């Protein structure tokens, strides 16, 4: 006695056979179109990858396979997210994530979840590549994929700050973002004194992330002496602009330094 599953299977087979007999030419054409579409997508992606690698830009995001870059041990898949920090005449410098992933989707998930915006996501150690070797690294699989942000996004995840808050006068937007972004780069390069100067410029011009970054450095004495009064001032100013990171940091700051908050 046939089960319901067997009957359903036979019915599906019969219907598929009838469909093929009456529409095999149409199905063949559809199959060709699908194959052509995927072939073109692959070709277009490779063209885009070649374009990005030939002219890399600051903030480009790369997924690296460190297994192809570490030569002193047996190959093992190790995906890591990296981001272009600076572009020189013949080389690029990247900041690299503190985490490695066994599967590529782990690196993609990190990008999609805005992980690149976390303060501790990137490790202090930077890596550099010659521009002339980027294509070869891609062919070897050491560079798995490179993405160029659309506005501030890659795959829906935020990978860099906007040029400036919406309420900032248009003529000042570029300079605000410039000071903060340069401060971030100096900080990642561990040039704390320069980073502090740049964040101070951004903070004094009203940029909330510049205020938050400066407050964080003042609280822990990076690039100079500890300045708790200054840290409170700038945390508070950034929090009043609805900067969520500053609000959380201010709350923790006041728990540790109750006499400083009023």
TrEMBL record:
What SUPFAM superfamilies does UniProt report for this protein, alphabetically?
HCP-like
**InterPro entries noted in UniProt:** ISR_Activator, Sel1-like, TPR-like_helical_dom_sf
Q: Where are the transmembrane segments?
A: 26-43
For this UniProt entry, which residues form the secretion signal? none
Q: Which UniProt keywords apply?
A: Membrane, Transmembrane, Transmembrane helix
Keyword Cell inner membrane on entry: no
Q: What Gene3D superfamilies does the entry give?
A: Tetratricopeptide repeat domain
Q: Does the keyword Flavoprotein apply?
A: no
Q: Name one Pfam family in it.
A: Sel1
Taking the record's annotation, the residue ranges forming a coiled coil are none
Q: What is this protein called?
A: Sel1 repeat family protein
Q: Which organism is it from?
A: Pseudoalteromonas phenolica
Q: What is the lineage of its organism?
A: Bacteria, Pseudomonadati, Pseudomonadota, Gammaproteobacteria, Alteromonadales
